[in-house]
Each structure stands twice: as C-alpha cells, then as structure tokens.
C-alpha cells in the first residue's frame, strides 16, 4: 500500500511541477500578482509530495518489502540497516527520485528564504525550477518507475553491490546530488535574469549563496568518493580520472569559476554576461554528468544503469535545458551592459585569469572524457583516454592557477599594485620554494614534479595565511574580527593548498612492498616493521571474511595492530578488500591482504603513503571555508529582508 | 537483466590483487620500468583500470608479457608496441598524437590561447573604458534597502 502511495505522490509531484511551471509564468507575462504568488506555495507542495514519495520508497527498503522489483534487485534482508537505507539511492530509479527530491528541496528553500526577492524574479526562478522538476518527474514515471510491483515476490533480495556497502559511499551520492542539483538554482536564476533582461549587483548577490552551497556539497561529495576509493579499492589510489569522477569534477570546476565571477558581477558590475553563461554551463555539466552516469555510453565503474532509452531521454532533457538556455543567452546577452572599470593589474583582472584557467581546465576534462566516445562514433577508432593524458594536460593548467592565486587574492579592486603584492607575498613564496627544495632533497630527486607541487601547494597555503594576516592589518587581535567572508576565503584557499601539497607528496613519495609472507614473518618498509601475526576466518552480518592480524612497529614501539581483510559477499557473489590503515598526520601505513599462495603464506602489499590525509583534510577545509563564507551576513540579505518585512499572513478566518 | 548484471559485476574492478609477489622481477630497475609501462596500459576487459591496478587474468598475463619482453632486452617503446600490435590502441591510456587525436592534445592549449585572448581583450576593454555613472538612483536606493539588515 505504501508503494502505491509513493507512486501516487510521485504523480502528484508531476502535476504540481506542471502547475508550478505554468501559473507563475503566465502571471509574470500578464503581471497578475496572485498568479505569480502561486510559485512559492507550489514549490513547497512539490517538496512535500516528492518527499512523501521518497519516504515510501525508503520505507520499502527499510522493511525489505520484496514485492517491489527495485528492492529485490538491490537489497537483502541480512544487510545492515545503514545499507538498507543507502540502498534506496544505490540504484538508478531510487537515485533519480533522490535527485528530484533534492531539486524540490532547493525550490522550497528558494520559496522560504527568498522573501527578499522581487516578486517577478521569484516567480520566474521558481517557474524555471518547476520545469526542471516536471521534466525529471516525467522521466522517472515514464522510464524508471521505482514502485513497480512483482506478481510473485521472492523470499529474499539480490543484495546491493558490496563495494557500495560502505559508510563513505552511503553518503557520497546524496552529497553529490545536493551539489549537482544545487546548481539548478544558479541556472534558474540565470534564465530568469535573461528573461527579465536585468542583471545587477543584487542579482549576483542572490545567486552566490546557492552556488556556494552547491559547491560545498560537490566538494564534500567528491572528497567522500575519493576517500572511499582510497581505502576500499585496495591499493590506495585516490583519483582515477574515471568518466564518472570527471562528471562530478567538471561542475565543481565551473561552479568554482562561477563563484569567483559572481563576486566581480556583484562588487564591480562587470563580467555579468560571462557569469550568466557560467551559471547555464554549470548546470549543463551537472546534466551531462547525470547523462554519463545513467546512460552508460561511457563505460565506467559507476554506470549501474546502462540503459540506452534512459540515456536518450536524459540527452533530450540536456539538449532542451542547455540548448534552450544558451539560445536565450545568445539572444539576450548583448543587452547586458558592463559598468565597472578596472585596471590591467587589479583583483578583477586576476579573477578573469582565474575564470579563464578554470574554464580551460574544465574544457580539458570534458575533451578527455568524451573523446573516446567521439573517436568511436566519428572516427571509428576504439581508444582510451586515461590518467596519463589528464595528468599531462590538466595538471599544468591547474598548477598555473594555483601560482597566481595568492597574488590575485591580495590585489586591490580596480587598480592593484603588483610590486607591492609581490613584496607582501614574498615570505610565502620563499617558504614554498624552500619546502619544495626540501621535498626534492628528501625524495632523493625522484620527482621534480612532486617537488614543484610541494612548492606550489605550500605557496598557496602560506599565501592564504598571508592574505588573512594582511586583511587583519597585521594585527593579531583583529584576526578574529575579520568578516566571515574573509575567513571563508582564507580557509578555502588554504584548503586548496593543503590538498595540492598532499597530492604532490603522496604521488612522489609513496613506498611500496609486495611479497609473500608466512605467518610470523616480518617485512621492513621505510622506518617501519610489519609483522604478519596471524590470519583467521570469520563471518560478518552478510559476508565471510579472511582477516589478518598485522603488527606495525617503529623501532621497538608497537604503533598499531591492523586488520586488513578479504571479504566475500555470497549473495552478490563478490569479493571485496578492506585495507588495514594506520592514519597519521604525516603518513598513512596501508596494508592489504592478498591471496593465499601455493606452498603456504599470503600475498601482502604494504604501502607507506606520506601526507595522504592532507588530500581530504584540504577538501574539508575548502568545504568549511565555503560554509563560513555562507554564514557571512552580507550573503544573508534575503533572510534579513524577511526579518525586517512586516509580519506576513493574515488570520485564517 | 540478470545476465547483464552478471556481466557488469564481472567488469567491476575487483579489488585487491593487482601485481602479485611472484610477478615481481628480481632486478629493481627492470621492475620499476615494468611498473611504469603497466601503469600506462589499460586492462582490456576492465573499466578504466591499468593492468598495474587490475586483478583480471588478462591483466596478469599482460603484466607477465611486459616483464618477459623487458627481460628479453626490449626498450620501453618496443614493449608498448608489442602490446598495442596485439590489442590495438585501446590499451593505451595515454592516446597517441596520430591523426585526429591531435585535436585532443592541442584542444587544451588552443582553448587556453583563445580564452586567454578573450580574457585579455575583456580586461583591456574595461581598463580603457571611461568610468560610467555607477548605479542609477533607483538602484542605489534598492541596494541600500537590501543591505540594511
């Protein structure tokens, strides 16, 4: 019964979305305030019914309702509750429903917090948001209904892919979706601005919080996915340039560019049409990401729904929204007058360079991701584009961006002084170069690129600290009184430096040993001794495990006892690896248990991975920086305006 | 549907494995070269994994072939050619620059020049533009109202 209720609620969502699209738009055209005012309640209603539908599906998964085909295919009664819940979105149909729910959530948030928006703009924004909801609700209902019943329910289900049964991955998709779909707000605002033909400082200020929120979620989602790959796939890789990783990375890059250009649009009334274009592109890349994941045209680890009809449907949606958006842009962008004047050397110019480099790096990822598809269809060549290409093409551009970042962040608006900025940044630069040299010496010259990465990462990190120091007028007690936006910028930029540092040191300085070990045998790696104490068999809630006891010693001191595991999930018939990791501030020791060998003993893989934690630590700092910035009072004008507005609503009688 | 699922499962990266202890060459220099080469060769039946990371049987076979060729005295290029001759350019994770692939390699730098040019033109235009009047009186009032918290 709940499944039918969920299905019914989903149909209601479709109808509400249609009304939310049409009525405010008509109201806007005819200047009927009542019709425009319909947008807010409609957005709330849509969130309510979509939420109801999602809850119904969630309940089916939590109670293991095997009369639903989706639950049978993706769940099992013995699975831990967390993964039953995560199973709701660990499949195509459920994840699309989550997509729709988050879309409705953002629409409802705009309705609630958008009290300060002009009525006409708000009506248009919510109408565009409603049209996206309409398209996706139709997509779910007609091609991927999650509520399909089975006539003869089986006794138990087929289990969720064991690789996905992991706390890191349970929350990876919701965060990514919050990011992807959050960019729909920037899109809706851009389309509304184009229709209204008016982009001003206030508009840019309204768009920024939504973009910032989406960017924060994307950052967390990407970091979770990368962290998961690091500890779950069994050899400590953290980024694979996999098409689906790229699919989430492209919107992140564009959202980063959009955040920065919106600042220029807000403060200086320049780059307005470029900001609009970025807003359209950012959501376009989100849809492209959905297409890549859902269609399976680009084979990838993640493409769990490889269904051509769904792929085509999403391609049509992509063409409609992005094509429509770009057409509207082409027709209207010319009418946007830039106002701000700035010098060749200025914060504005630095942000233009930032945007150029971010856009180009995104373009490179785009080209590399879709090239195999293009080559196969157009050139008839079956080829691969993998990590070596991206490392060669993407990394230099991104490092160039990192080099100009510290300088650009302290240049003055309108007219900056490069030599003074250079002088202010000199200590950070010297520190960076010194650390780079140190890294080069310690890595015994193994990798010049690694040392360069360390130098640049350290420069960005110390540059961010310098930036805060300068903003506080070189007075420590003023540091705490800085606006949150300044702290947010410092944290986010510093976090980027930390991540670059981590990647550079990890890539250049990983130690590795692969060998056969007997129980009781000792292996030396770096400054550590690893003992394979014993190997035992065991059983988890829904898997069998072979677990090793391994002791990690440094000198005579026992650092940790680690338990790398090999698991086997009988229902899904799949093995997984759980690495034993001792995490530290400056290094991770990473142990993997391999197969038993003929003639006794076990294959064992041991790694010392310096600075591994810094990669995700930096990502956390970036997200935190975004969050701090989001709470800056200047970005909360909508809420502020709402507070100062006279109490709304009249008694019901 | 079930068969499709099974195929998908088989294509998923099976974790662990990768290079096995019995594959490692005694000569550390040769082994390092073997690892470098393997990291650039794609496992033909996997999804976006190099033979160095994959534990598919074919990846193991390829790793052994790479090492065999190295021990036989082949140069790095000869080893890669040996593998691509048999499996096609699909196994190259770093696509070559032949024919249309040039577009892939030049695309990034070309875009950088183009975007850089547009960016520079924008900056110059803004630098030489005369300062217009800021906000209109109406906009000023609206902004002030919005800023008031």
Automatic annotation (TrEMBL), chain A:
Residues 315-633 form the Cytochrome c-type biogenesis protein CcmF C-terminal domain. One of its GO terms (cellular component) is plasma membrane. Keywords: Cell inner membrane, Cell membrane, Cytochrome c-type biogenesis, Lyase, Membrane, Transmembrane, Transmembrane helix. GO terms for molecular function: heme binding; heme transmembrane transporter activity; lyase activity. It is found in: Cell inner membrane. It is a multi-pass membrane protein. It comes from the Bacteria. GO terms for biological process: cytochrome complex assembly. It holds the Pfam family CcmF_C. Its main location: membrane. Belongs to the CcmF/CycK/Ccl1/NrfE/CcsA family. NCBIfam families: nrfE (TIGR00353), PRK10369.1 (NF007691). This is Heme lyase CcmF/NrfE family subunit.
From TrEMBL, chain B:
The chain crosses the membrane at residues 102-123. It holds the Pfam family CcmH. GO terms for cellular component: plasma membrane. CDD domains: CcmH_N. InterPro entries: C-type_cytochrome_biogenesis, CcmH/CycL/Ccl2/NrfF_N, CcmH/CycL/NrfF/Ccl2_sf. GO terms for biological process: cytochrome complex assembly. Keywords: Cytochrome c-type biogenesis, Heme, Iron, Membrane, Metal-binding, Signal, Transmembrane, Transmembrane helix. Residues 1-18 form the signal peptide. GO terms for molecular function: metal ion binding. Residues 7-147 form the CcmH/CycL/Ccl2/NrfF N-terminal domain. Belongs to the CcmH/CycL/Ccl2/NrfF family. Possible subunit of a heme lyase. This is Cytochrome c-type biogenesis protein. It comes from Pseudoroseicyclus tamaricis.
């Amino acid at each position: 019964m709940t499944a039918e209720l969920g299905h019914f609620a989903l149909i209601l969502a479709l109808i509400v979305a249609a009304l939310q699209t049409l009525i405010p738009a008509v109201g806007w055209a005819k200047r009927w305030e009542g019709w425009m005012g319909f947008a807010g309640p409609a957005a709330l209603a849509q969130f309510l019914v979509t939420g109801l539908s999602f809850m119904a599906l969630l309940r089916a998964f939590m109670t293991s309702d095997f009369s639903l085909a989706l639950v049978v295919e993706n769940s099992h009664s013995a699975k831990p509750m967390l993964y039953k819940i995560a199973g709701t979105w660990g499949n195509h149909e459920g994840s699309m429903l989550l997509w729709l729910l988050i879309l409705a959530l953002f629409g409802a948030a705009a309705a609630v917090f958008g009290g300060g928006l002009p009525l006409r703009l708000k009506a248009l924004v919510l109408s565009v948001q409603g049209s996206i909801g309409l398209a996706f609700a139709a997509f779910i209902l007609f091609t991927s209904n999650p509520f399909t019943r089975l006539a003869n329910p089986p006794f138990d289900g087929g289990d969720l892919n064991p690789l996905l049964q992991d706390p890191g991955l349970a929350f990876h998709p919701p965060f990514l979706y919050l990011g992807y779909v959050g960019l729909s707000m920037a899109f809706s605002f851009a389309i509304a601005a184009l229709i209204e033909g008016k982009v001003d400082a206030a508009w840019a200020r309204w768009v920024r919080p939504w973009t910032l929120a989406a960017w924060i979620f994307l950052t967390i989602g990407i970091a979770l996915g990368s962290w998961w790959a690091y500890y779950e796939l069994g050899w400590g890789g953290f980024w694979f340039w996999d098409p689906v990783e790229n699919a989430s990375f492209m919107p992140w890059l564009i959202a980063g560019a959009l955040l920065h250009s919106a600042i220029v649009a807000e403060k200086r009334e320049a780059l307005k049409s470029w900001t609009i274009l970025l807003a359209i592109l950012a959501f376009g890349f989100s849809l492209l990401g959905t297409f890549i994941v859902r269609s399976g045209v680009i084979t990838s680890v993640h493409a769990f729904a490889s269904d051509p009809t769904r792929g085509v449907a999403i391609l049509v949606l992509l063409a409609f929204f992005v094509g429509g958006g770009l057409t509207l842009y082409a027709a209207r962008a010319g009418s946007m007058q830039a106002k701000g004047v700035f010098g060749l050397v200025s914060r504005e110019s630095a942000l233009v360079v930032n945007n150029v480099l971010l856009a180009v790096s995104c373009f490179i990822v785009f080209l590399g991701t879709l090239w195999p598809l293009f080559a196969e269809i157009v050139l008839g060549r079956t080829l691969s584009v993998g990590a070596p290409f991206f490392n060669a093409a993407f990394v230099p551009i991104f490092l160039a961006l990192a080099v100009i970042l510290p300088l650009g962040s302290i240049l003055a608006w309108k007219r900056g002084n490069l030599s003074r900025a250079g002088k202010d940044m000199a200590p950070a630069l010297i520190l960076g170069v010194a650390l780079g040299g140190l890294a080069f010496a310690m890595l015994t010259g193994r990798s010049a690129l690694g040392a360069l990465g360390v130098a640049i990462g350290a420069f960005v990190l110390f540059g961010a600290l310098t930036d805060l120091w300068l903003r506080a007028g070189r007075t420590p007690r003023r540091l705490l009184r800085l606006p949150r936006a300044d702290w947010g910028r410092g944290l986010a930029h510093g976090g980027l430096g930390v991540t670059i540092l981590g990647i550079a040191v990890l890539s250049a300085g990983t130690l590795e040993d692969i060998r056969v070990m007997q129980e009781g045998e000792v292996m030396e790696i770096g400054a550590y001794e690893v003992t394979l104490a014993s190997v035992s068999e065991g059983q988890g809630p829904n898997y069998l495990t072979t677990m090793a006891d391994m002791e990690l010693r440094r000198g005579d001191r026992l650092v940790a006892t680690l338990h790398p595991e090999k698991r086997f999930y009988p229902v899904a018939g799949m093995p997984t690896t759980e690495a034993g990791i001792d995490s530290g501030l400056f290094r991770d020791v990473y142990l993997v248990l391999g197969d038993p060998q003929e003639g006794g003993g076990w294959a064992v893989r041991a790694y010392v991975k310096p600075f591994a934690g810094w990669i995700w630590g930096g990502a956390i700092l970036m997200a935190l920086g975004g969050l701090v910035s989001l709470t800056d009072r200047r970005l909360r004008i909508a809420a502020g305006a709402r507070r100062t507005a006279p109490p709304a609503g009249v008694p019901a009688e | 549907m079930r068969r499709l699922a099974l195929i998908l499962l088989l294509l998923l990266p099976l974790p662990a494995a990768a290079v096995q202890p019995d594959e490692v060459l005694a000569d550390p220099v040769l082994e390092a070269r073997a690892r470098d080469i393997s990291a650039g060769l794609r496992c033909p039946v996997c999804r976006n994994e190099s033979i160095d990371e994959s534990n598919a049987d074919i990846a193991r076979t390829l790793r052994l072939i790479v090492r065999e060729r190295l021990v036989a005295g082949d140069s790095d290029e000869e080893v890669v050619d040996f593998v691509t001759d048999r499996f096609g350019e699909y196994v190259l994770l770093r696509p070559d620059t032949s024919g249309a692939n040039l577009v892939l390699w030049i695309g990034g730098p070309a875009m950088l020049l183009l975007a850089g040019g547009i960016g520079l033109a924008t900056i110059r235009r803004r630098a030489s533009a005369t300062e217009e009047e800021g906000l209109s009186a109406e906009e000023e009032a609206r902004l002030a109202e919005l800023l008031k918290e």
